[in-house]
Design a protein that fits this description.
Radius of gyration: 31 Å
Number of strands: 20
CATH architecture of the largest domain: 4-Layer Sandwich
CATH class of the largest domain: Alpha Beta
Distance between the termini: 13 Å
Strand order of the largest sheet: 13-12-11-10-9-8-15
């Protein structure tokens, strides 16, 4: 089933005959059937489909206009047993003037006529010779005794199982002007814009068109369904390519091949669009009350979602884009620390170096910040603090990394001090419980803070956003610092950032550094607070709290779009179907929500740190949440999920 706020849209470019409405109507019926069978519930045809866009002065012939009118009535009747909202382009005479309109068909009726607002009369276009511009006034047109809303200010609002669905229409040139009608449509509440177009093909125009539609959907925080006339139009002076595009909030979901006929479909996520609109208070919606709102009824189609769901939403899948993103993020992190050092007048930092991913990234960022400020890297005091769980591998990597980067390195073994502390508080050093683990984390933080006092330095935090979301940090231990450079970076992205630095080092001939970084990337994620087994890490974080790639996925869709656990589960099944079974996803989803709600008190008092993406957990920015909020609503919903 679609459900969960998804709706499938189709753009159809049929193979028509110019000035043959009867033939063209038959092709429209075939297009409706094909799109409907594919699960489409919004179906859009090109501009002037029934007549053909290239009729020229044949538009002045009464027979052509009358026949198009009759075919609209027949097409409306054809939809009687179907529930899609269908947009068909046709010439239409209204009060003695000819208009270029979109006839809106639904459940046996024509429920609206949308005239084109901007009529081009430049270059190869001569529409003003035949057509009258439409305007915002919504009047009543007569079609075989039925009064139909006629005008541009019409929104079609669904009353079925997708109550968020609100559709508005513009036609071809309307999208190419400085102030498209779709701007007002979206501000009046429309979240799906359809465009019936006849855009001829010229060198470079497809690329421009692609950008235009993509950007329009982003500006409007909407879906945009663009259907254009195809090669079967007259080629007397122009060629049409049938370039159909379906976009959503700046992303092209599907587009057709140029110079083709046929149908494209894509699944639009209305929940995602409405979440963005709710979040952005500068997106002013429902401010126009002069719109006629026409109800229609579409229910969910019984089809599976056909939409790619990225398993790592924080990490671009394209190599080039990922490298660019990593470069940008590393600069954001470094600039944040650079400014803090300038503000405080400090020339020294203290950072705990474990040989793991997070502290490695934090050190690399600190080095970049020092280089930005022209500071001596010897002012970076990297402190490695071996404890009961430290392995030779992580110790050697920590030491080697500091030396390869030219930082000051100090080693402080914490085993004796932690043993004494455990004795002081009456805890058994042989009981490896949470006290045993957290005592080590807090001892390390105390060392870093005191060393910062000694050196007149700033303690750089290493914890990442995924750990903060799960509360996988010792309160007043590794949870605390003077500036947390990784606070906005999820764990799945930390790995790619370290890999980015490693690749840079390798390309620059810094083999010693790159070898160490590549080995750190291969090391299991672990706090190393429990004794190793046979010299190897015995405590693997993901065995305890769950896979970070799942938790980052949950975090993204929960905070970025406010999706429900059921919808997040469904998306996770699509994204990770070959990696995790349904039971695993439900299990770790429950762990995520339990930890997220119970651990907010740690996030409520976070140190400063830079936001790098659209999701962040800072209590001063994106996540203003009570520390004692109940998670029962979400956890109860997870219990209702039936893993399949």
């Amino acid at each position: 089933m679609m459900k969960d706020g998804f709706i499938r849209a189709a753009a159809v470019t049929p193979k028509i005959r110019v000035a043959d409405p009867h033939y063209n109507a038959e092709k429209v019926r075939e297009g409706i059937d094909e799109a409907y069978v594919k699960g489409a519930r919004i179906i859009v045809f090109p501009e002037l489909t029934l007549s053909g866009y290239t009729c020229q002065d044949l538009f002045l012939q009464r027979d052509l206009i009358s026949e198009c009118r009759e075919e609209i009535k027949r097409l409306a009747e054809y939809t009687a047993d179907l529930d899609p909202l269908v947009f068909v382009g046709t010439p239409y005479e209204f009060r003695g003037k000819l208009y270029n309109v979109a006839a809106v068909l639904h459940r046996g009726l024509c429920i609206g006529m949308i005239p084109k607002t901007y009529i081009p009369d430049y270059s190869e276009f001569y529409e003003g010779r035949h057509f009258t511009p439409g305007n915002a006034s919504v009047l009543s047109a007569d079609l075989d005794g039925m009064e139909i809303p006629f005008g541009t200010h019409i929104i079609f609002e669904n009353g079925g199982t997708l109550p968020d669905l609100a559709v508005a229409c513009e036609i071809c040139e309307d999208a190419w002007v400085p102030g498209p009608p779709s701007i007002v449509h979206s501000m009046a509440g429309a979240n799906v814009i359809v465009n019936l177009s006849a855009s001829d093909e010229l060198i470079g125009k497809a690329s421009y068109r692609r950008s235009l539609i993509s950007q329009a959907s982003a500006n409007l925080v909407s879906a945009y369904v663009y259907a254009s006339a195809g090669p079967s139009e007259s080629t007397q002076d122009l060629v049409f390519s049938g370039h159909d595009i379906i976009a959503e909030n700046g992303v092209i979901l599907k587009e057709s091949e140029l110079f083709s006929h046929g149908t494209i479909t894509a699944d639009v996520d209305l929940g995602r669009l409405m979440a963005d609109r709710r979040r952005r208070n500068t997106f002013t919606s429902n401010v126009y009350d002069d719109y006629v709102r026409v109800p229609f009824l579409i229910n969910d189609a019984d089809v599976a979602i056909e939409r790619y769901i990225a398993p790592m939403p924080f990490v671009p899948s394209d190599d080039k884009e990922r490298r660019s993103r990593c470069s940008e993020i590393s600069s954001i992190q470094a600039l944040g620390l650079s400014k803090r050092l300038i503000h405080t007048g400090l020339k020294d930092t203290v950072i705990g170096l474990s040989g793991g991913l997070d502290s490695t990234l934090a050190l690399l960022v600190t080095v970049k910040a020092f280089d930005m400020n022209g500071l001596d890297r010897a002012g970076i005091h990297a402190v490695t603090m071996p404890g009961f769980g430290t392995t030779d591998r992580t110790y050697d990597n920590a030491v080697g990394l500091a030396k390869a980067l030219g930082c000051d390195l100090k080693e402080v073994d914490i085993k004796q001090s932690v043993t004494q502390h455990m004795e002081d508080i009456g805890a058994d050093i042989n009981v490896h419980d949470v006290t045993y683990e957290n005592a080590q984390a807090r001892e390390r933080t105390q060392i870093l803070m005191d060393m910062a006092n000694m050196k007149n330095a700033l303690v750089v935090g290493t914890g990442d956003m995924s750990e903060l979301a799960l509360g996988w940090a010792t309160y007043n231990g590794d949870h605390m610092s003077m500036y947390g450079v990784n606070a906005g970076v999820p764990k799945t992205l930390v790995r790619h950032l370290v890999s980015f630095y490693a690749d840079e080092a390798a390309s620059d001939g810094r083999k010693e550094l790159s070898d160490i970084l590549y080995d750190i990337l291969k090391t299991p994620v672990s706090p190393e607070l429990l004794p190793p087994k046979d010299g190897k890490i015995s405590q693997r974080t993901e065995d305890i709290v769950g896979p970070y790639e799942l938790h980052d996925f949950f975090l993204y869709y929960m905070l970025r779009f406010g999706f429900s656990p059921k919808k997040i589960y469904r998306l996770a099944r699509l994204a990770f179907g070959d990696t995790y079974d349904a039971e695993e996803i439900v299990k770790w989803l429950g762990v995520f929500y339990r930890r997220f709600f119970s651990q907010q008190f740690k996030r409520s008092c976070l140190p400063d740190g830079p936001k790098v993406g659209t999701v962040a957990v800072s209590p001063r920015g994106d996540l203003r949440m009570p520390s004692d909020a109940s998670g029962s609503l979400w956890l109860d919903e997870i219990k209702e999920i039936k893993p399949i």
